[in-house]
Design brief:
221 residues, mainly alpha, MetI-like fold, 11 helices, globular, cell membrane, AA_ABC_Transporter_Permease, transmembrane
Amino acid sequence: MEQLFALFESGKFLEATFQTLLYVLVAMGLGGGIGLILGVCLTVTRQGGILPSPPTYWVLNFLVNFFRPIPFVLLIFALQPLARAVIGTGIGDPMAMFALAFAASFGIARLVEQNLLTVSPGVIEAARAMGAGPLRTILTVLIPEGLGPLVLGYTFAFIAVVDMTAMAGIIGGGGLGNFAMQYGFRQFNPWVTWSAVLLIIVIVQLVQVLGNAIARKLLRR
C-alpha cells in the first residue's frame, strides 16, 4: 500500500494513465478514420452495393481478413520493419501508437461494414430514385442512417484498443498495462495491479455508458 501511495505522489500513476488515454485517442483518431473509409468502401463495392466492384471488394476483404485475426502481441513485432520505414522507429510510444492505429483500422473497417449493412436498402433506393448520386447517397443517407449502430461499433472498438494498450510495454511503451506489470506483478504488489485494473474498468464503463447514451439518442430520431 505504501508503494502505491509513493507511485501516486511521484506522478507515475498519472503519467501511465495519460499514456493510455493518448494511445487510445491516437489509435481511434487515425485507425477510426481509416477504418471508416475502408468499411464504407467494403459496403458500397460489394455485390448489390451502391458502387459494386467485385475486384475492389475482393482486395479490401482479403486485407481485412488477413490482418484482423493476427494477435496484437504478434502484430507489434511483425510491424516493426514497416514502422521504422514510416515513423523512423520500431520501439517506444510512437511504435505503440502506430501498431494500435494499424490494428484498429482493420477491426473498425469490419465493424463499419457490418453496421452499415443494417441500413434499409429501401432508404438507399429512395435516395437514388430522387436523383442522388453515389457520393451524395453515401454521405447523406448511408452513413447518417447507420450512425446509431456505428457509435456502438466505435464504442466496442475503443474498449478493444484499451485492452491492446496493455501490450505496449513489450516494445518499451508505457500505459496502465505496463504500469501494472512493472510495479505490480513483477514486484508482487497486488495493490498497484488492482489500482491500474480498476482505473481501466472505470474508463471502459464511462465510455460504454456514453456510447450507449449517444446511440440510443440517434436511434430514436
